Each structure stands twice: as structure tokens, then as C-alpha cells.
């Protein structure tokens, strides 16, 4: 009898748990986001960095509302959390770097990139990402990083690939570098205290280090390809099939936002203060990325080739399926 | 006596703050990574004058309060039920001992899969962590019931509910209140952790944003806020405890007979 009671309690517990779970499923599987009065609210998974300024600026300028879209930004900790969020339907759209997207595609994760995200400036020494060494460091070129400790934010991802390639281009052996994983925000302190010899950082960590006297020895993203497409917005294949109209609207609004953002750097520096806490002196010195309206396919192919060369894919990704 | 305690506490805090000011100023640690107290204070002032800060504070407190309320109700109800239904304690003991040590943080992937970066995810972690505090204290409290008092109540013909109300509950209450006080602190820790790691809106997320933005003083300012919040919650919990147990000898402070 008592065991029966315990069983019943456990059963009730499970029932409640599954009930909660399934009610959530029905919410997310409606997949349209919530719509009211002709406006569709879509959730976008992003990282709070300058790269996603077009979404905030486009929202402010009314480019999205013009298409009947309202963006609800969800800040994710690092891009890795965004891909599962999009495939499981928690976000309708997401922002992710090209390498992560290609790795996901090569693993048959059902996603497709739908709009350009952000591109390197293509200018050596004036890119939004760079390889820096401490002030007064004897290291003058990427070649000298052989046997040295270099920090990247994520191993086996875009920054590792581009750093290795810069070392190779400078005449060094890319396999001899000692890469360590470190979050961007921890790089300035680590470089300063000598825990690492060099850091591959993007803004705002890059400017923070430069303001402390760090010297840029290479612009790895520029080295890979001129105007490298670094990141894109993507959605799940299922969502794109069910809601082609919304995806199209998102693409159009994003294209308009990208064009506007690219030509209004002052407004970018202003809008960034609304969703990050970047200090004013860093913000003023920040190198802004480029926001072309379209992805640069040949640069993505170059990145794909490198990623393959450094063993990121089990099978090569199908760019025709991935790209818009 | 109380006055001097407060004075000592304030003096201790002052020394701590002065150290926080002196250590970076003297160059023992780099100012850029550990800003002096005054710099943190001014960043704190900048924070509290923004709307974003208050809505984040509201989100955190909502997660904390709702989570704690669920955990306390569930903990007490389950605790009492498990104790008074014969054999249930024995049946569930191993399960409880198995589930209890699982760190709430380990459930983050589960929470994210189920609910994404929302309040519900925060609640899962908060409730899971604080539930056991209340449950275990309730179990101990119920065990502490004086058998003589229980037998007396029985022989006077009190029903189950009356015995729970007049014998079991007064005995268990001091334990339950300890559990609630512990749970209140744990709930805050988990609410902030969840926001920090999952990215649910709240103070934790603000800290994460400050971190990615290289805004070091702002980051420390927000950390200070969480500390103050913890302090206030502890003071609040102690007050509630004192009120609820005003009749109890541990609070009355009279010499026990």
C-alpha cells in the first residue's frame, strides 16, 4: 500500500514534469514566434558584441517593423549555445561564425545560413580581430610563435584556423604553436601577466589590449581571404520550410540594416552602448567590422579549405545547402 | 551590546573597503583588473541610475522569490508527508540521498534543453538547489518530536491533522526556519549562477555582459550588488525567523529551565 503510494507520488511527479515539458514543446513548435496585430515577434540568439549592431540599429530605425517583424534578442554565452537553441526552436534565428556553421552542416545539423552577419575589414593591421603580443615582446612576426603559448577563444574553431594559417604564411610551422583556450575577456590580463605570449582577440578585447600597449603582429582574418565573411545569421531548415515568408522578411530587413550600419559608424558606436557596457575610451578606439549586405562565397570557400586542412570536418560541408 | 556589535561590524567593513582601495593604488594588483573601491563605487552609481539595472534586479529577485517560495512549500509538504506516512521515510531515504548531492549547476544543460534562456530555467535550478535544504531540515525537525508529547496528544484523542498542527509543527518549525534561511541564500546564488551561465535576464546576465564588454569596474559593481543582496536576504531571513519563533526558547534567550 505504502509502496503503491510512493509509486503514485513518483508517477504524479513524472506526469507534472512531462506536462510542463510538453506544454513548452507546443509553444516552441508553433514556430512562428508570437504574432499579434500583423507584427511577428521572432527570437534571435546573439552574443552581445559589436558584430550584431545591425539588428539593434535596424530595429531602432524601423527596418524590421516595416517588414512586420519584431526582434526579441536573447543573449547567449558564446556562439556554441546558439546553434542548439535554433535547431530546438527556442530561437527562430541565430548569429554564428562561419566555421561553427560549416562544422554543424558537415555533421548534418539541419540549419541554413540566411543573411550575412559580419565581415573582416580586409585591411592588414586595421581589422576587428588581430593577433597581438605584449608591449615590448621580442616576438615580431607570426613565424616566431613556434613553441609559444597563444590564446584563442575556442579551440577547433575559426580563430584557431586563422592563427595557424597566419603562422604558416609567415613561414612558420603551424603545428608547433601551443594554442590554449581562453575567453576573450580574460586575454588582456593573461597577456599582461605573461601567462600567454600572444592572443588572437576580437573587439573589444583587442582595443583593450592595444590601449595597454599590446602590438599587433598579424591580422589573421585578413590573411585568409580579402573581405572574409566571419559570421552569418541562420535558421533551422524546418523553420525555413514552414515559414518562408518570415525568413524572406528577415533577410530583407537584415540587408537594409547591414547597408545602413556599414555607412553610419557613429550610430553604431552609439547603439553599442545600449546592449553592452564597453567603456567609452575603448568604444571610441574600436575598429568596426564591415557589414556587407551579402556573404562573400569565395572567402567562405577559402575558410572551408583551411578548416578541412586543419581537420575540423569529418566530411566536407555542403556549401550549396548551407548558404542562401 | 548590540550597538557595539554594529560598530565593530562597520569598522570591519571600513577596513575591508580601505584595503580594496589601497591594494590596487599601491600597485600590488593591476588597477585595470582590480579597480580600487572608489572606482567601483562610481561605476555602481552609474549602474543604479540606469533602467536596465533595475529591471535586471527585478528579474533576479523574481527568480529568487518564486523559486524559494516553490521550494519552501514543496519542501515542507513533502517533508511532513514523508515523515508521517509510515514506511515512506525508509522507502524514499536512498532516493533522497541520491538526488540531494547532485549539484544544481549540473542540471543546466537539462534546463536549457527544456526551457532555453528563460525564467523557467532559472526556476529549475533555484528550486532544485533550495528544495533539499528545506526538505532535509523538515525531516530532521519532524524526527525531533518528543514521543511523550506525541503519545499524550494521541491519548487525548487528537486526530492526525491536530497532531501535525499542535505537536509536530511547533517542534519542526525551528528546523524548518533554519532550512528556509539556508535556502534563501542558496536560491540567490543559483539565480545569479543561472543568469550568468544560461544568459537568462537578470543581474547575472548583466555581469556577463560587463565581462564581455571589458567593463571591469562595472563588473565588480554588479558583483557588489549581488553581495549586498545576499546580505539583505540574510538579514531578512533572520528577522522572519525571529518573528516566527518568538515563542521559542532559542529566540527568547531566557535561561532554559
Automatic annotation (TrEMBL), chain A:
InterPro entries: Solute-binding_3/MltF_N, SsuA/THI5. Pfam families: NMT1. It is found in: Periplasm. Keywords: Signal. It comes from the Bacteria. Residues 1-19 form the signal peptide. Residues 41-264 form the Solute-binding protein family 3/N-terminal domain. Its main location: periplasm. Belongs to the bacterial solute-binding protein SsuA/TauA family. This is NitT/TauT family transport system substrate-binding protein.
From TrEMBL, chain B:
InterPro entries: MetI-like, MetI-like_sf. Residues 57-241 form the ABC transmembrane type-1 domain. The keyword Cell inner membrane does not apply. The chain crosses the membrane at residues 64-86, 172-199, 219-237. Its main location: membrane. It holds the Pfam family BPD_transp_1. It is a multi-pass membrane protein. Keywords: Cell membrane, Membrane, Transmembrane, Transmembrane helix, Transport. CDD domains: TM_PBP2. It is found in: Cell membrane. Belongs to the binding-protein-dependent transport system permease family. This is ABC-type nitrate/sulfonate/bicarbonate transport system permease component. It comes from Streptomyces pseudovenezuelae.
Amino acid at each position: 500500500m505504502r509502496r503503491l503510494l510512493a509509486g503514485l507520488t513518483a508517477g504524479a511527479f513524472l506526469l507534472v514534469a512531462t506536462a510542463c515539458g510538453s506544454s513548452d514543446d507546443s509553444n516552441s513548435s508553433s514556430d512562428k514566434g508570437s504574432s499579434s496585430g500583423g507584427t511577428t515577434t521572432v527570437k534571435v540568439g546573439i552574443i552581445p558584441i559589436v558584430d550584431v549592431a545591425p539588428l539593434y540599429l535596424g530595429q531602432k530605425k524601423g527596418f524590421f517593423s516595416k517588414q512586420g517583424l519584431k526582434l526579441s534578442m536573447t543573449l547567449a554565452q558564446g556562439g556554441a549555445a546558439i546553434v542548439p537553441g535554433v535547431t530546438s526552436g527556442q530561437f527562430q534565428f541565430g548569429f554564428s561564425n562561419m566555421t561553427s556553421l560549416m562544422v554543424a552542416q558537415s555533421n548534418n545539423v539541419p540549419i541554413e545560413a540566411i543573411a550575412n552577419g559580419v565581415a573582416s575589414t580586409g585591411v592588414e593591421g586595421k581589422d576587428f580581430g588581430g593577433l597581438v603580443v605584449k608591449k615590448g615582446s621580442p616576438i615580431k612576426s607570426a613565424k616566431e610563435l613556434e613553441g609559444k603559448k597563444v590564446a584563442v577563444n575556442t579551440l577547433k574553431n575559426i580563430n584557431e584556423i586563422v592563427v595557424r594559417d597566419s603562422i604558416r604564411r609567415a613561414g612558420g610551422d603551424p603545428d608547433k604553436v601551443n594554442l590554449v583556450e581562453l575567453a576573450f575577456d580574460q586575454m588582456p590580463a593573461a597577456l599582461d601577466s605573461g601567462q600567454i605570449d600572444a592572443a588572437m582577440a576580437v573587439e573589444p578585447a583587442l582595443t583593450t589590449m592595444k590601449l595597454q600597449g599590446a602590438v599587433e603582429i598579424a591580422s589573421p582574418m585578413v590573411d585568409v581571404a580579402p573581405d572574409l565573411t566571419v559570421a552569418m545569421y541562420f535558421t533551422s531548415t524546418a523553420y525555413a520550410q514552414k515559414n518562408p515568408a518570415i525568413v524572406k522578411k528577415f533577410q530583407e530587413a537584415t540587408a537594409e540594416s547591414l547597408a545602413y550600419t556599414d555607412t553610419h559608424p557613429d550610430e553604431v558606436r552609439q547603439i553599442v552602448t545600449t546592449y553592452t557596457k564597453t567603456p567609452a575610451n575603448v568604444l571610441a578606439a574600436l575598429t568596426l567590422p564591415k557589414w556587407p549586405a551579402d556573404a562573400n562565397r569565395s572567402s567562405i570557400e577559402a575558410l572551408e579549405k583551411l578548416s578541412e586542412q586543419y581537420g575540423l570536418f569529418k566530411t566536407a560541408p555542403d556549401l550549396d545547402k548551407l548558404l542562401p | 551590546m548590540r550597538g557595539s556589535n554594529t560598530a565593530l561590524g562597520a569598522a570591519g567593513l571600513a577596513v575591508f573597503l580601505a584595503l580594496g582601495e589601497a591594494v590596487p593604488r599601491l600597485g600590488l594588483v593591476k588597477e585595470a583588473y582590480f579597480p580600487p573601491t572608489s572606482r567601483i563605487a562610481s561605476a555602481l552609481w552609474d549602474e543604479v541610475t540606469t533602467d536596465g539595472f533595475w529591471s535586471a534586479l527585478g528579474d533576479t529577485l523574481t527568480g529568487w522569490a518564486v523559486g524559494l517560495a516553490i521550494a519552501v512549500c514543496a519542501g515542507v509538504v513533502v517533508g511532513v508527508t514523508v515523515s508521517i506516512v509510515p514506511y515512506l521515510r525508509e522507502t524514499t531515504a536512498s532516493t533522497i540521498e541520491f538526488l540531494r548531492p547532485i549539484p544544481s549547476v549540473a542540471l543546466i544543460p537539462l534546463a536549457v534543453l527544456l526551457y532555453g534562456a528563460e525564467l523557467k530555467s532559472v526556476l529549475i535550478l533555484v528550486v532544485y538547489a533550495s528544495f533539499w535544504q528545506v526538505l532535509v531540515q523538515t525531516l530532521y525537525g519532524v524526527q525531533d518530536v518528543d514521543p511523550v508529547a506525541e503519545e499524550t496528544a494521541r491519548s487525548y484523542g487528537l486526530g492526525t491533522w491536530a497532531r501535525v498542527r499542535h505537536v509536530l509543527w511547533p517542534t519542526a518549525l525551528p528546523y524548518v526556519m533554519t532550512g528556509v534561511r539556508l535556502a534563501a541564500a542558496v536560491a540567490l546564488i543559483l539565480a545569479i549562477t543561472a543568469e550568468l551561465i544560461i544568459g537568462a535576464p537578470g543581474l547575472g546576465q548583466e555581469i556577463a555582459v560587463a565581462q564581455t564588454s571589458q567593463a571591469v569596474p562595472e563588473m565588480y559593481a554588479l558583483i557588489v550588488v549581488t553581495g549586498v543582496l545576499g546580505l539583505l536576504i540574510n538579514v531578512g531571513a533572520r528577522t522572519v525567523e525571529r518573528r516566527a519563533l518568538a515563542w521559542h526558547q532559542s529566540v527568547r534567550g531566557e535561561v532554559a529551565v
